[in-house]
């Protein structure tokens, strides 16, 4: 999270990130792709610590929180925010489902525009 009050890996406190570096990161075109059903709070490889759970009790919630915290940080810094959040309907913690959604986005972005 782009939270300067919390140490890495849950925040960016004590990291040597300047406002300019954050601005460059927020200005890059980034797509955060989340599976709508990646909401299992007891998944065997989902970390549960006090700091992790404060970010959400499942991956879907954590991903949303990350996106909106980044957006808020960019607004606070007064810098461009060029990230997008896309939710993939019906997909949980599934490599193939997410890869198919990502491939579709890549294919759509490489189609020539018709004027």
TrEMBL record:
Protein source organism: Sporomusa silvacetica DSM 10669
Name this polypeptide is given: Alpha/beta hydrolase family protein
Gene3D superfamilies xref list: alpha/beta hydrolase (3.40.50.1820)
Highest taxon listed in the record's lineage: Bacteria
